[in-house]
# Entry
Amino acid sequence: MEGHYKLTAIVNNPLTTQPTPSLMAFKDLPPDARPREKLLARGPQALADAELLALLLRTGLAGKGVLQLAQELLDTFGGIAGLLNTSADDLKRVKGLGGPAKRAELLAVLELARRALAQQLQARTVFASPQALKDYLQLHLAPRGHEVFAVLFLDPQNRLIALEELFRGTLTQTSVYPREVVLRALHHQAAAVVLAHNHPSGSVQPSRADEALTQTLKATLALVDVRVLDHVIVAPGAALSMAERGLV
# Structure
C-alpha cells in the first residue's frame, strides 16, 4: 500500500516533474513493470496488448511514452485484430509511425501471422479450423479500400494449395470472369475451391449479386469437376461464411 500511495502522490502532485508511468521510457519503469523483463520472467501471456505492442515500437514520441503510443494505436484501430487488418498506408498516416522502421516491423508481424495461418491450412483440411480460414482471409483482404475477389485452391484433401487474388473492383462491385477462375483451378490441379472477397463498407452480409456469382461459379467449375466449398466475405473485424448460411 505504501508503494501504491507514493505512486499516486507522484501522479497527482502538480508540482512534481516526474513523468507518469504511461509516459515513462522503459528504462525509467520499475524492473518488474518493464514489458521485456516482465515477458521473460512471466511469459508473453502476462503482458497486456499495449505492452506487447510497445515492445515492437520500442520508443514513443516527444511528450508521449511508448506505452501510451501503443494504447492509442490499439484504440484507433479497434484493438489487436483491427491493427493487424490495417494497411501500410493506414500506418503511414499515424503520427509516430511515419518512419519506415516501425512500420516495417509491424508489417513483418502481420506477414508472419499470415504465413502461420497459411501453414495451418496447408497442413490440414481448411475445415478442421474454420476460424483459421476466416482469420487468414481477413488478414489478406480486409484492409483493402477496394473490393478484391480471391480464390483458395485446394487439393483432394481440402488442404490449401494457393491463394490468388484474381480480380479487383470499385468500392461497390467487382467484375469476375468465370473462365479465368476455371483456368487457374486447372493450372493448380485443384479439386475444390473456396471463394472469397472483401466488403470495404464494413458489412459482411452477402448481396444478391454475391449469391448469383456464387451459383454461377459453382455451376461453371462443376463442368471441370471442381467443387465450390464456400464463399467467405470479410471486412475489418468480421467474416461470414456463405456455406454456413446455406447459400452455397
In short: DSSP finds ten helices and five strands in the chain. The chain has two domains: 2-111, 128-241. Residues 100-123 form the longest helix (24 residues).
